[in-house]
């Protein structure tokens, strides 16, 4: 499964659990960590954990398991490492505090709508 396909499924899974402020950053040209950072917010620990569970289930059905998950128990910032895709799910307060979009501003910000349109055109 490509990074774009994983990202598309992860976005759908986050949206299914009412994720807020979904942001996608293409970091492939500025880092070897991954191709994409997918960032989303939840209102509380339970919603953040539900969002993580949804992503893990959706990608698991596609045969992809995370290499590492960190922060699930506290639910204020959960990181899921899928190799070419890293999913960050925050509560609102920690999203504002850590501001990954600012830290990774050298990456290419991609609107979710544009990502979907490009994926459809590519046949992903």
Describe this structure in words.
The chain has 5 helices and 6 strands. The protein has helices spanning 3-16, 45-61, 92-98, 100-103, 112-122; strands at residues 20-26, 36-42, 68-70, 77-81, 85-91, 108-110. The chain starts with a helix and ends with a helix. Strand 4 and strand 5 form a beta hairpin. The protein has a single domain (3-122), classed as Beta Polymerase, domain 2 (2-Layer Sandwich). It has 124 residues and is of the alpha+beta class. The chain is globular. A 6-stranded mixed sheet has the order 3-4-5-2-1-6. The mean pLDDT is 94. Helix 1 packs across helix 2 and helix 1 crosses helix 5.
Provide a concise account of the structure shown.
It is built from five helices and six strands. It is of the alpha+beta class and 124 residues long. The mean pLDDT is 94.
Question: What structural keywords apply?
Answer:
5 helices, 26% strand, Beta Polymerase, domain 2, six-stranded mixed beta sheet, alpha+beta, 124 residues, single chain, 6 strands
How many individual β-strands? 6
Report the top-level CATH class.
Alpha Beta
Largest beta-sheet details: 6 strands, mixed
Could you give the order of the helices and strands?
HEEHEEEHHEH
Percent in strands: 25-35%
- How large is the radius of gyration? 13 Å
CATH domain topology: Beta Polymerase, domain 2
Distance between the termini: 10 Å
SS-derived structural category: alpha+beta
The CATH level-2 architecture is identified as: 2-Layer Sandwich
Number of domains: 1
Instruction: Say which CATH homologous superfamily is assigned.
Output: Beta Polymerase, domain 2
Number of helices: 5
Bulk shape:
globular
Strand order in the sheet with the most strands: 3-4-5-2-1-6
The helix content, as a percent range, equals 40-55%
Give start-end ranges of low-pLDDT stretches.
none
Mean pLDDT: 94
């Amino acid at each position: 499964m490509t990074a774009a396909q994983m990202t598309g499924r992860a976005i759908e899974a986050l949206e299914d659990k009412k994720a807020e402020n979904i942001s996608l950053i293409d970091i492939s040209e500025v880092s070897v960590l991954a191709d994409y950072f997918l960032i989303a917010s939840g209102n509380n620990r339970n919603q953040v954990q539900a969002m993580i569970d949804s992503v893990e289930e959706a990608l698991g059905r596609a045969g992809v398991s995370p290499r590492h998950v960190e922060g699930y128990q506290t639910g204020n910032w959960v990181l899921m490492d899928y190799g070419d895709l890293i999913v960050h799910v925050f509560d609102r307060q920690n999203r504002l505090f850590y501001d990954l979009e600012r830290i990774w501003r050298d990456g290419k910000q991609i609107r979710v709508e544009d990502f979907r349109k490009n994926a459809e055109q590519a046949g992903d």
